[in-house]
Automatic annotation (TrEMBL):
InterPro entries the UniProt entry points to: Apaf_helical, At4g27190-like_LRR, LRR_dom_sf, NB-ARC, P-loop_NTPase, Plant_NBS-LRR
Annotated Pfam families: LRR_RPS2, NB-ARC
Entry protein name: Disease resistance protein
Family note: Belongs to the disease resistance NB-LRR family.
Domain of life: Eukaryota
């Protein structure tokens, strides 16, 4: 009550009316401006005093009288009048001094580009009225707290919120602590003991603010906002939340943040700048030993800010020998010479590890340290985990694959694992890996040696309790005799750097409990001793130099996974070995054994026949190459295959850009109808390559009457009989290729049409890319019935070498064709006189979505575009034109009519074009063709490459100079008639100086 009375007294001392009258009076008298400023300042001071009293009352939950609030409102109105009056230039000249902005840039988070970008994105999200919850996730020590503090500072500077409060939540949610931190930032006292009462008071206090930003930092689990007292959503639409966590799933699954921001490590250049600052190396001389050592130390921090700051500060002003010693310790993270800077970094990672929700997650994380490369291959991790039996309630490799996918996703969400260049791989941050090796050594008694020299085997006592050993490209010496490792479950040796690796006969005798054995990239002479490891579940000889599997390997009856990838010298697998692997689920022989023998030779042959893997009833993953189809039994059938990559025939290789679960590459001179197993594979294949194939004319109906429901990629080549890919004439209508994404057709001599007859709506509805090459009887690429299905999906067309002599006068794309998503178009050896109509109809506006257009060797074309077509190519970024003998101009200027009938009319020509390549154009006289185009035409062109244009006189005429101001590179070669690169006419002198960004000008021949 005392506070309320104080407010009333203060308001009574100072009313608004006098200054209001003074304002009206001063409008007439310029000499009294200084008096106005004085009175205005006094009023502001009075308002501040009253406002402080009001805030104190509010903080204590007291109500403010309406008269006080009205007074504050009138003060704001009067202050605004004064401000507007002083801002008027006419009054300002009457005696007001020039305003000088003295605001300085606040100190804070370093303004690196990577951080500034995400900071700006968060600020934009805060300004968006439709977003009320924002999340940031990233690895521990990456700078999340620093970032959100900078966001808070900037939000206060920009006056986006009436109040900003922040609390660090940490692993254990302590509601009282969070409430206290928020209250203190709001200038509020919370003395109540009851958590519920405190929440109610805090809730009421926050409701008084129109706009408020709440920052909850370092979340490990979900939080109940109502328990804390934070009004949110429909309870307070002006309240916005900014949250940080190491775990993406905490934000998305437990708090419902829609699209959290990922904060990664610093790029190399930024990391080096920060490291130099922390270590005091700003004036470091280049090309010195000190420079090379400090650079290497900085790289070992791998862009992680906490590592950079900790290591940099620890080594500031240290000698070269101390720097070298620190580098040695960082290279050997398992060293007993642990130091404080390593402990600080490791403790951050161990905190994340300790908070993983299950032992399975922890085990998989630690198992990643056993990988030989920094990119971790999913299949490798699968064979390690299966062999070790890490999964609870999992009995098959198929189940293990699903579980592993789930666990990897969770580890990625915590940022302990990261995405890599391919979906088959993932990676681990260098600092995380080093910490993980240390954790594995301490918790699981793992012995990991990686890329090091001079290491010695652990003491015997350590070996007895050791559960995992991984030696990766290590110069540890040969394998000792008779190692006693009764607890050992996992042994991994990668010996790429050595020429041979002799295995003592007694080496594995003390490892009878071994579950996973990986002898990768080794020179292996005789591995008979491996047959004694009867408990082995996973055996990998990846990329090893081995010529023959010994008979003793057949004793591994518990084996579930056998990896023989890249054993290119493997020539002999004796009969009956594979047949003994009754539990085998995965057999991978990519780029390996090719010596399969026929069934009739099995009893007296030296090699295995296909009947052996056929009779493995648990087999669900198979990777093999059958070069000679004649050895295939007629009843070859792999009933349970879910994943496979099978090559049949002698024309294939193992390469492929498509990542699918099932791949079949098939070349059969015999009728495939005789091989029922092949038909079964065709039913579930996702990536299919066909070569030759006798007696097939209609691919769809003869190979798979169901329509290839799972097929995503189809390549057909080298066939002299196929006439149609789909011929549905007089046949039952089916959904043909409903999820096909890419279609490649090469050298089909008799192919007349891709499709003939009616197609269902779902047919080809997902097709994104099509390539046709050397199909000279093909009348058109797209039947109208096919185009209807393609209209919403097709992104890329390549049609090299189509030479149908009978259809030279036909348009390649008629006005009926609509492909609105097409982005890439490549045409070669098209015999048509025109690619499209000179005046495109509204139906064919689809060309405006092209971003890349390559056209070559189309001998009948006299021009590439009409002006109207060129106007529609508003998104084109790359244009390449090669091998034309008749074209004199690229853009036809005759009958130029702006295409106002299209859905979007554009006057500028190629406004987004960045690269233009023109070569082998014998008759080309001008590149640009038109001398009057809008200022935005060609405005983004950066690269111009011209070669072998015999009649070209000039590259850049004067009228194009101002349009090409972003041009950075001009390369010209073998243009015999060329007189000038840039032409400047006298009539253009009044245009003034032209600025250019040209960096490279290359002339050749």
């Amino acid at each position: 009550m005392e506070v309320v009375l104080a407010i009333a007294g203060k308001v009574g001392e100072y009313t608004v009316a006098p200054i209001g009258r003074q304002l009206g009076y001063l409008f007439c008298y310029r000499s009294n401006l200084n008096e106005l400023r004085k009175k205005a300042k006094m009023l502001e001071e009075a308002k501040e005093s009253v406002q402080h009293l009001v805030d104190a009352a509010r903080n204590n939950g007291e109500e403010i009288e309406r008269g006080v609030l009205n007074w504050l409102g009138r003060v704001d109105e009067t202050s605004l009048q004064v401000k507007n009056f002083q801002g008027d230039a006419r009054h300002a000249r009457a005696g007001s001094p020039k305003w000088i902005d003295t605001a300085s840039t606040p100190a804070g988070y370093m303004a690196f580009e990577s951080r500034a970008k995400i900071l700006n994105e968060i600020m934009e999200a805060l300004k968006n009225p439709d977003i009320n919850m924002i999340g940031v996730y990233g690895l521990g020590g990456v700078g999340k707290t620093t970032l959100v503090k900078d966001v808070a500072r900037k939000a206060q500077e920009d006056k986006l919120f009436d109040a900003v409060a922040m609390s660090v939540v940490a692993q254990k949610v302590e509601v009282n602590k969070i409430q206290k931190e928020i209250a203190e930032m709001l200038g509020m006292k919370l003395d109540e003991e009851s958590e519920i009462v405190r929440a109610s008071r805090l809730h009421d206090r926050l409701k008084q603010e129109k706009n408020v930003l709440m920052i909850l930092d370092d979340l490990w689990v979900g939080v109940d906002l109502s328990k804390i007292g934070i009004p949110f959503g429909i309870k307070h639409k002006g309240c916005k939340l900014l949250l940080t966590s190491r775990d993406q799933e905490v934000l998305t699954n437990k708090i419902d943040v829609k699209k959290p921001f990922f904060l990664g490590v610093l790029p190399e250049e930024e990391a080096w700048e920060l490291f130099k600052q922390m270590a005091g190396l700003e004036n470091l001389k280049e090309n010195s030993e000190f420079m090379s050592t400090t650079t290497e130390v900085a790289k070992k921090c791998a862009g992680l800010p906490i590592a950079i700051v900790t290591v940099g500060r620890a080594l500031r002003n240290k000698s070269l020998s101390e720097w070298r010693d620190a580098l040695l310790q960082m290279k050997r993270p398992t060293s007993r010479n642990s130091n404080r800077m390593q402990e600080v970094v490791d403790s951050s990672i161990k905190l994340s590890f300790d908070n993983l929700e299950s032992e399975e997650l922890k085990n998989i994380f630690l198992l990643c340290t056993m990988q030989m490369d920094y990119d971790i291959f999913f299949t490798d991790l699968l064979k390690y985990s299966v062999g070790l039996g890490l999964f609870t309630g999992i009995y098959t490799i198929k189940e293990a694959r699903d579980r592993l996918n789930t666990l990897i996703s969770k580890l990625k969400a915590t940022c302990l694992l990261l995405d890599s260049y391919s979906s088959d791989f993932f990676t681990m941050h260098d600092v995380v890996r080093d910490a993980a090796i240390s954790i594995a050594s301490n918790l699981q008694h793992a012995f990991v040696v990686r890329y090091e020299k001079g290491n010695e085997w652990p003491e015997k006592e350590q070996l007895r309790i050791c559960t995992a050993i991984s030696l990766i490209k290590s110069d540890i010496g040969g394998l000792p005799e008779g190692m006693d490792c009764p607890s050992l479950k996992f042994f991994h040796l990668d010996n790429k750097e050595s020429n041979s690796f002799p295995t003592p006969d007694s080496f594995f005798q003390g490892m009878r409990g071994l579950k996973t054995l990986c002898l990768d990239q080794c020179v292996l002479e005789d591995i008979t001793v491996v047959g004694e490891l009867k408990n082995l579940k996973a055996l990998s000889l990846l990329s090893s130099d081995i010529k023959q599997l010994p008979h003793a390997i057949g004793q591994l009856t518990q084996l579930q996974l056998l990896d023989l990838q890249n054993c290119s010298k493997l020539e002999i697998i004796p009969p009956d070995i594979i047949l003994n692997f009754k539990m085998l689920e995965v057999l991978d022989m990519e780029n390996s054994f090719l010596g399969w023998e026929g069934e009739e030779a099995n009893s007296k042959g030296i090699n295995v026949s296909l009947m052996e893997p056929k009779n493995l009833h648990e087999l669900n993953t198979l990777v093999i190459w059958i070069r000679d189809p004649s050895v295939m039994p007629g009843d070859l059938l792999f009933k349970n295959l879910k994943r496979y990559k099978i090559l049949i025939g002698d024309v294939w290789n193992w390469s492929g850009k498509c990542k699918t679960s099932t791949t079949l590459k098939l070349k059969l001179n015999i009728s495939f109808h005789l091989v029922q197993g092949v038909k079964r594979l065709l039913e579930i294949v996702e990536d299919l390559h066909l070569d030759e194939l006798s007696s097939v004319k209609n691919v769809l109906y003869e190979l798979n009457g169901e329509g290839f429901q799972f097929l995503k990629h189809l390549l057909i080549q080298n066939n002299v009989e196929i006439e149609y890919i789909v011929n549905s004439m007089n046949l039952e209508l089916i959904h043909a290729f409903p999820i096909l994404e890419s279609l490649v057709i090469h050298n089909l001599i008799k192919l007349e049409r891709i499709c003939i007859g009616q197609l269902s709506v779902k047919s080809f509805s997902k097709l994104q890319e099509i390539e046709v090459k050397n199909c000279h009887k093909l009348k058109n690429v797209f039947a109208f019935s096919m185009v209807k299905s393609l209209s919403r999906s097709l992104l890329k067309i390549e049609t090299p070498y189509m030479k149908n002599e009978n259809d030279a006068r036909m348009l390649l794309f008629s006005e009926k064709v609509e492909l609105p998503k097409i982005e890439t178009l490549k045409l070669s050896s098209i015999n048509s006189h025109k690619i499209w109509q000179d005046q495109p109809s509204a139906a064919s506006y689809w060309v405006q979505n092209l971003t890349s257009f390559i056209v070559e060797d189309c001998r009948n074309l006299k021009h590439l575009f009409s002006y109207s077509v060129a106007e529609t190519l508003v998104k084109l970024k790359h244009l390449e034109i090669c091998y034309f003998h008749m074209i004199e101009e690229i853009i036809l200027t005759e009958g130029r009519i702006s295409n106002s009938t299209l859905p979007h009319s554009h006057e500028a020509l190629f406004p987004n074009l960045e690269a233009l390549v023109i070569s082998y154009m014998d008759n080309l006289k001008t590149i640009w063709s038109v001398d009057h185009v809008s200022p935005n035409s060609f405005g983004k062109l950066k690269s111009l490459n011209i070669n072998y244009c015999k009649k070209l006189l000039s590259i850049v005429p004067s009228y194009m100079l101002r349009k090409l101001q972003n041009l950075e590179t001009i390369k010209v070669g073998n243009c015999g008639s060329l007189n000038e690169i840039v032409r400047i006419d006298g009539g253009d002198e009044d245009h003034g100086e032209v600025h250019t960004r040209l960096k490279i000008l290359s002339l050749d021949g």
